[in-house]
Amino acid sequence: MAQNSVYLPEQFLAQMREALPSHLSFDDFIAACQRPLRRSIRVNTLKISVADFLTLVSPYRWQLTPVPWCEEGFWIEREDDDALPLGSTAEHLSGLFYIQEASSMLPVAALFADDNAPERVMDVAAAPGSKTTQIAARMGNRGAILANEFSASRVKVLHANISRCGIHNVALTHFDGRVFGAALPEAFDAILLDAPCSGEGVVRKDPDALKNWSTESNLDIAATQRELIDSAFHALRPGGTLVYSTCTLNRDENEDVCLWLKAQYPDAVEILPLNDLFDTAKEAVTPEGFLHVFPQIYDCEGFFVARLRKTRAIDPLPAPTFRVGKFPFTPLKGREAAQAETAAGKVGLNWDDSLRLWTRDKEIWLFPSHIEPLIGKVRFSRLGIRLAEVHNKGYRWQHEAVIALAGSENTFALTHQEAEEWYRGRDVYPESTPQQDEAIVTYQGYPLGLAKKVGSRLKNSYPRELVRDGRLFTGNDRTD
User: Fold this and answer.
1) Tell me, what's the pLDDT at 34?
2) 125 annotated binding-site participant
3) What CATH architecture is 330-403?
4) DSSP letters of 385-419?
5) CA-CA distances (angstroms) from residue 360 to 195, 331, 386, 404?
6) H or E element in which residue 242 lies
7) Which residues are catalytic?
8) Residue 63: count of CB within 10 angstroms of its CB
9) Alpha-carbon distances, residue 152 vs 61, 155, 179, 439 (angstroms)
C-alpha cells in the first residue's frame, strides 16, 4: 500500500513517544500514521438487516471485513481502483449504508454497551451525522435524539444524511454546546460528546492535519472541552450515561478532561470501564478504563473514548439568558389529523404513536413524542420530519417522509436504468405504469421517492438539491 507524506511535528512525536503504552512500538506508530486509511462502511439496519445487505452486495467485487466493535460495521476493499465512488452506488443513495470510519463507530458502541436503552439522547457535536444515524439505528427510530451542530454550514449536511437514512426521531439544533447544561438540565438519558479536538488521530486521512499543531493550541482546545463536558454532565439525568470521545491522541484533551470532571463532581461521576466492550478492547484500554486507540492497534484512525455514569444530581447552573421565542407549531388533532393519516395510508406512508402530527401554516409535520417536553426550552432548527404540504386538491407528500415512512404498499419497482434516471432528476417512462395516480418508486425493494403518473410517464419528485450527475451505479462493480 502506498505511503502518505504525513507531516508529524517533532514535539508531537516526543509527546507520543512518552504517551505510548509500553506494549506498543513507537516505530509501529509512525508506520501506521504513514499508511493510508482503510475505508469502512456501516449498514443502516433501519432499512436492511446485515445478512440481507451482505446478500444484496454479494455479486460485487467488495471484500468486507467485520469491525470488531460494531456488528453493522465493515472495512471495505474493492479490487478495481477505478471503481464507482461508494457514494454513487445504489445502496448508498437509498440509505442502505453509511460511509463511516471504523474507529468513529466506537463511541456509539460504548453508549449502548451493557444493554443501555436510552429513550432521549443528545449528540452534542453531530455533523456530518455518522454517529447520529448510528444512534438512531440502535434506537430503532424510537425515542428521540437531539442532534446539535454549532457550524451553520454543516447543519444542512447533517439533515441530508439523517433524511437519506430514513430517520424520523431527530430534532436538530444549532448552538454552542456549552448552553445545554443550563437550558436543558437533567433532560437526557444518554449524551454523546464527540468533542471538537486537535485531530491528531486523522493524519492517515488528512496528511496535513497537524500543520498548525502546538501544545499551546491543544491546551486551549482542552479548556473548551472541559466547558463542554461540564455542560453535558448537567444536561444528563442522574443514572444516565455520558460518552466523551475525540479523534486525537494527547492526554490533555482526553484522559485529563474526564479526570477533571471526576474531580469537579467526585460523588457524581463514575467511570464505567470499557475493557469488555469487544473481544480485543484490552489492547487499547487505559488504567482508568478508557479506550485510547493508537492507529496501529486496530489499523484505523487514532481515537479516544470514555464512558461515564452520573450517579446523583448536582447543583444546577444559572438559568439561560437567551429567549426561545414562540413555538410556531400547534398539534394537529381530530378530523384534520384523521384525514391526513388516512390520505397518507392510501399513498403507502404509515407511522406509530412514537410520532405525533403538528401543523404550521399549510405544512404538516411529524415530531417524535419524546422530544415534546423540551419544546419551549430550546429553539429547534428542524424537528422530526415534514410530512406534507396541504393544498386545494389534497396533500403534497414530502420526500423525507416517503424515505422514512414508506412500507411495502403502493410501490412500483424501477429497473436499473430507470432508477438511474430517477437519481438524475429525470422523468421515467416504464413499460407499464402503476394503477394509482401516485406511487412510491423503489429500486432493489427500497424507496427512492414518490412519483405522479402523467399519461405513460412517471413525474419525478426527487429534490433538486439531491440530483446527481457523473457516474452512477448502473452495471458497475458487479461480477455477474
Assistant:
1) 94
2) yes
3) Roll (3.10)
4) EEEEEEETTEEEE-HHHHHHHB-STTEEEPPHHHH
5) 35, 9, 10, 20
6) strand 236-246
7) 247
8) 11
9) 38, 5, 16, 35
Query: Is the C-alpha dihedral spanning 21, 26, 28, 34 positive or negative?
Result: positive
> What top-level class would CATH report for the domain 407-466?
alpha beta
- For the chain, the first-to-last Cα distance in angstroms comes to 28
Rounded Cα distance, 180 and 148, in Å: 10
- The whole-model pTM stands at 0.96
Are 440 and 411 contacting, i.e. CB atoms less than 8 angstroms apart? yes
| CA dihedral sign, ordered 285, 244, 383, 419 | negative
Residue 379 has pLDDT above 70, yes or no: yes
pLDDT for 62 equals 93
- The answer to whether 348 is annotated as binding is no
Q: Is the peptide bond before 295 cis (omega within 30 degrees of 0)?
A: no
Q: Is 176 annotated as a binding residue?
A: yes
CATH T-level topology, domain 10-310? Rossmann fold (3.40.50)
Closest to 344 (Cα-Cα) out of 384, 397, 304, 385: 397
Query: How confident is residue 393, by pLDDT bands cut at 50, 70 and 90?
Result: confident
Average pLDDT over residues 273-300: 97
* Sequence ranges of the domains in the chain: 10-310, 330-403, 407-466
Indicate the DSSP class of residue 37. Answer: P
Residue 27, all three cell numbers: 516505530
Does the annotation list 149 as a binding residue? Answer: yes
pLDDT tens readout for residues 184-204 = 999 999 999 999 999 999 999
Same fold yes or no, 330-403 and 407-466: yes
At residue 339, what is the residue type? Q
